[in-house]
């Protein structure tokens, strides 16, 4: 099938999902995932998506995360990190322990259980943030707590992937130097982001103004080019570039895009006042349209295509998947919400919202499953389908629980 034909089908399914979301009053993300699963199981789209669709969907999640960071206040985010260490630690430790123990009991393989536990550790922050966005809660304290703790979780999970996968595959042992390198890369990435936000973007106002080339460049000057007509292009270029930088440092590009949006302030849009146009609002409206209407949804539809229904196999692993889902559902909510209340000093409504928001499993979970099942053949097909079903149930739970708790939270 032609790549553009697949994209057209996905876009058509976005229309259907949006219509169903409006009629059912559920978040569109749930219907995007559902449409993706239906499309692939009815053989309307191929099981193996072409590279073009994968790259296009990757661009979608990059722009989504950039748009969410673009709307966030930097000071609130920094305060959120200080409050979120306990959520990140306990909200990851408990799901890892539950998944490791359950899969070890099911199949008795320690290496496979290790990677199953790792796959079920990191939160799918993109799914949660879009669900919060659809409910108008993406700027709440709970949303900041979820985002910051999820980033800390991703850092830890990426380090564990680099350390544990070679060990489980029998290719390496724990190396102190390897751990130091991974942590150094994480620190290095955030230092680069800090330098970009503190000195590079506002270069015409700081010490860099004395450097010939950098002194001329400032983000405000670039955004004001052509009466602000190139502002959206500039921001998308920054989102993709910092996303690629994050990938180079070992993170998912979406994390880099979020951080890029976070360090762009409204002050950079204070230009061409004679036109009486709020360039910040105008640019954000266009970015939001791109992110949440026509490019971003492709990511979630494509994500839904990962669930291939093999009826015989699914029936055989359904008891294990349901048990694992129930354990992770309650374990994640209890651990994250309790940590949010006692270590993050959130109130109980916000703490429970954080617990619900930490349920999703997507990017890193599928990366670990791909490595364990496809590359190293550590994970059995039964374990793979168990984790796929569990992740699907958890992802469905995110918009449903957030929607249910919204009235009580507000």
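-> sequence recovered:
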């Amino acid at each position: 099938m032609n790549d553009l034909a697949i994209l057209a089908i996905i876009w058509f399914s976005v229309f259907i999902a949006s219509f169903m979301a409006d009629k059912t009053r559920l978040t569109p993300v749930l219907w995007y995932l559902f449409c993706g699963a239906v499309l692939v199981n009815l053989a309307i789209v191929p099981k193996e998506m072409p590279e073009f669709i994968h790259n296009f969907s990757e661009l979608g999640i990059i722009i989504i995360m950039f748009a969410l960071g673009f709307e966030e206040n930097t000071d609130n985010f920094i305060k959120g990190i200080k409050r979120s260490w306990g959520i990140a630690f306990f909200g990851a430790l408990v799901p890892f322990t539950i998944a490791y123990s359950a899969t070890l009991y099911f199949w008795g393989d320690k290496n496979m259980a290790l990677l199953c536990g790792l796959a079920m550790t990191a939160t799918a922050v993109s799914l949660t943030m879009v669900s919060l966005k659809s409910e108008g809660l993406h700027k709440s304290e709970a949303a900041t707590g979820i985002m910051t703790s999820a980033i800390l979780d991703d850092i830890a999970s990426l380090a564990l992937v680099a350390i544990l996968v070679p060990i489980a595959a029998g290719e390496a042992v724990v190396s102190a130097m390897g751990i130091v390198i991974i942590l150094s890369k994480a620190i290095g990435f955030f230092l680069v982001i800090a330098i970009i936000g503190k000195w590079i973007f506002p270069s015409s106002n700081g010490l860099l103004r004395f450097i010939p080339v950098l002194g001329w460049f400032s983000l405000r000057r670039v955004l004001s080019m052509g009466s602000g007509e190139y502002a959206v292009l500039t921001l998308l270029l920054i989102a993709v570039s910092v996303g690629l930088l994050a990938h180079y440092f070992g993170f998912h590009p979406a994390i880099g895009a979020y951080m890029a949006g976070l360090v762009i302030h409204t002050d950079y849009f204070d230009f061409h006042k004679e036109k009486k146009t709020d360039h910040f609002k105008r640019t954000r409206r266009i970015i939001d349209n791109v992110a949440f209407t026509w490019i971003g949804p492709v990511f979630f539809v494509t994500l839904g295509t990962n669930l291939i229904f093999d009826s015989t196999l699914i029936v055989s692993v359904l008891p294990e998947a349901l048990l694992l889902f129930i354990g992770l559902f309650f374990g994640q909510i209890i651990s994250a919400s309790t940590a949010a209340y006692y270590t993050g000093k959130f109130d109980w409504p916000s703490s429970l919202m954080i617990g619900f928001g930490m349920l999703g499993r997507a990017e890193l979970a599928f990366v670990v499953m791909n490595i364990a099942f496809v590359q190293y053949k550590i994970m059995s097909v039964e374990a793979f389908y168990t984790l796929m079903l569990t992740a699907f149930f958890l992802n469905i739970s995110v918009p449903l629980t957030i929607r249910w708790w919204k009235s009580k939270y507000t």
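The chain has one domain: 77-288+309-409.
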